[in-house]
User: What shape does this take?
Amino acid sequence: MKKFLAMLLTIAMLGGVLAGCGGGTATTTPAPAETGTTETGTPEASAPVETVDLTVGYMSNYGSLWSVITADKLGYFAEEGINITLTGFDSGPNIIAAMESGSVNFGYIGDGAHKLCVQGNATIIGLSHISNGDAVIGGPNVKTLEDLKGKTVAYSSGTSSETILTNALNSVGLTMDDITAMDMDASAVVTAMLSGGVDACAIWSPQSLTILDEMADATKLAENVDYSDISISLASWIVKPDYLAANRDVAVRFMRALFKAMDYAAQEEHYEEVAQWVADYLALDVNSVLPQARGDAEWLTGKDVVAGIADGTVEAYYQLQQEMMVNSGAITAEEQCPVADYVDMELMTEAGNY
Assistant: This one.
């Protein structure tokens, strides 16, 4: 976290930061209500926490599941009186669409889908991690970023795939107009690359790892960390604004459970254990999941997030992300808004009080 704070402070001094503006289920059983004592010293039961059933949208990778699976396994959802059902999706925009239909209560999004939050479609209630799981990958005829000119490149619009692709192109003086961009979902990107149907692609982990493992002549051309001096890739937990207005207490309990889980899962000595839990849930070999735990992100603890809110770091992250959206054309200058309009930092601070 410190390296990104230093970068943001440098950008702020230069005036570069905005001034304002799968499937399956996991269930938990609520813990008994806590008890206190009356003035006479006799036990007195506190009001029981209302048990709630929540549907949570996720994507089939470690970054999406690391905290929510840990919160379930360690009983943190049970402590909050929460039963969860996990529902898999292939992208953040599809999770937001499911929220709009009422079939999902809370969801996880990668970097690209954050523009929908800026546009008012969802509220961010938790910073999950700083991602390094996106990559631009070249096939046998694409060995450098410059080689992308005139080539057919697969990507998923509105996601972190589009973000890493535009950053990579811009770094060598190219734009989307210089390539033949093929918009498709994540599974189709993998198929297109492995079959030779496209020359290159931009995709996230674990699909990126699959391509690199199965294509001997594939080359990783770029990843998030390559642009850490000008860019940041965030992953967040979100909710629909109207649901949040009616169920704020539930959102606080949900994020409190996740923050406790992040405190545990972000510790390197727990990587293998958490990777095994995620692998078991996704019915994968742990050896295909563990590399994601070790290299896909800077895993934040709940305490990191709350401290970052207090010192302004978290707000600066989202400000920089919004500036990147404007520069890439993901949102217009008119759509810029104060971070507080769509990131509920007061809720995160309340949830971090444990």
